[in-house]
Amino acid sequence: MDTNTIAIVILISSFVLLIMLRFPIALALVASTLLTVFYLDVPLPVIGQQMINGMNSFSLLAIPFFILTGQIMSEGGLALRLINLANLFVGRIRGGLALVNSVACMFFGNISGSAVADASSVGSIMIPMMKKKGYDADYSVGVTISSAIQGVVVPPSHNLVLYSLAAGGISVASLFLAGIIPGLIMLISLMITGYIIAVKRGYAKGEPVERKEIPGILLHGFLSFTPAIIILGGIVSGWFTATESGALATLYSFILAFLIYREVPVSRMWMILKRTFRTVSMVFFLIAASAAFGWVLAYLKIPSMVTDLFLGISDNPLIILFIINVLLLLLGAPMDMAPMILIMTPILLPVAANLGMDPVHFGIVLILNAGIGLLTPPVGTVLFVGCAIGKVSIQQGTKAMMPFFYALLIVLLLITYVPEVVMWLPNLVLK
Question: Which of 111, 202, 225, 263 is the most exposed place for a label (fewest CB within 10 A)?
Answer without folding.
Answer: 202
